[in-house]
Structure to design on (329 residues):
């Protein structure tokens, strides 16, 4: 008997990478799902294991997942999409007997609120000063330029430099903006996996040499204890169990500081897997209650990415009511 795993978000780079990783294991049967019948990752698995789901924002999303759990006798559900995670994380009981391989609702909520995140991580000494735009921001003695961005943003939407006091006073107050110290240095992404007790198993820093639609498509991993320890401290502060992507940027003094946490599989996962940390496979074992190593080492290695056309029969294409990608950034 194999373990039956459903991976959603099959149209995104993270979904594709998770599916590819899990297909290498002979002890798993991998089902792929997306809201869009044109999602490429659907066609990586055998035809009888392809599924359509409603959009994560749809009221029927969680009930539809739970129907799949029953019909396909699923043991594990992995979602690679933020909006889906938000919808399901408080309702994981409804997926029983399948297990949802995702961090706790609390970890997810603190990660998706950049103000709460900075406050939670203040004790690590690696969070920039962060306050709401308005009176709180006017009370801080900033070194200008400072930086402003939406408290709950994604995909770099709504980010801006705050050049001086006048610009600070002019910030709109109806966009949920936060103001923080400018981090003018190099930016890194660190893929982190923590075990069931919250202990960090691997933290793999990588550069984002080229970025397309918010996803790093070229870059390299690097051994840097300070980056690894900073990301691990953040993961521990938010009580991470499972996978997250911790983004760091150097401050004026060159110290790596916290930008944000994306509490899900990153689109650049193939690099981290090639470096020796097969996060999807570890996540499966972790949420199935199997032992995983206390520490997994990684190598320094680089990646570039190209597109590949997958040719399928016309009648293979699943017909979905919904098209296009959900917000995967
Ligand atoms: N404090 C900051 N100083 C300088 N640049 C920043 C700062 N915060 C964010 N940025 C820039 O804005 C981008 C998006 O911010 P981030 O916090 O990652 O939010 P998201 O990716 O969810 O939009 C970052 O990749 C970085 O380039
Ligand atoms: Mg970001």
């Amino acid at each position: 008997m194999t373990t039956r795993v459903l991976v959603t978000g099959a149209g995104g780079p993270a979904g594709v990478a998770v599916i590819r990783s899990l297909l290498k294991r002979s002890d798993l049967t991998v089902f792929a799902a997306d809201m869009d019948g044109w999602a490429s990752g659907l066609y990586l698995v055998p035809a009888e294991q392809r599924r359509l789901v409603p959009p994560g924002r749809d009221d029927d999303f969680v009930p539809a997942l739970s129907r799949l759990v029953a019909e396909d006798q699923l043991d594990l559900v992995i979602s690679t999409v933020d909006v889906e995670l938000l919808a399901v994380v408080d309702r994981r009981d409804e997926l029983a007997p399948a297990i949802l391989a995702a961090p706790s609702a609390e970890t997810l909520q603190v990660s998706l609120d950049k103000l709460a995140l900075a406050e939670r991580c203040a004790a690590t000494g690696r969070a920039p000063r962060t306050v709401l735009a308005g009176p709180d921001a006017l009370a801080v003695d900033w070194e200008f330029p400072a930086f402003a961005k939406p408290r709950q943003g994604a995909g770099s939407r709504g980010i801006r430099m705050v050049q001086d006091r006048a610009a600070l006073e002019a910030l709109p107050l109806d966009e949920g903006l936060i103001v923080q110290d400018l981090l003018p240095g190099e930016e890194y992404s660190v893929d982190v996996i923590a075990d069931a007790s919250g202990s960090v198993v691997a933290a793999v820093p990588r550069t984002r040499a080229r970025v397309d639609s918010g996803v790093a498509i070229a870059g390299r991993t690097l051994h840097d204890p300070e980056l690894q320890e900073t990301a691990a401290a953040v993961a521990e502060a938010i009580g991470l169990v499972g996978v997250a992507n911790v983004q760091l940027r150097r401050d004026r003094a060159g110290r790596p500081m916290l930008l944000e946490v994306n509490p899900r599989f990153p689109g650049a996962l193939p690099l981290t897997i090639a470096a020796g940390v097969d996060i999807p496979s570890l996540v499966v074992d972790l949420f199935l209650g199997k032992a995983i190593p206390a520490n997994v080492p990684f190598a320094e290695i680089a990646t570039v990415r190209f597109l590949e056309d997958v040719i399928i029969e016309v009648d293979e294409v699943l017909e979905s009511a919904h098209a296009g990608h959900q917000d995967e950034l």
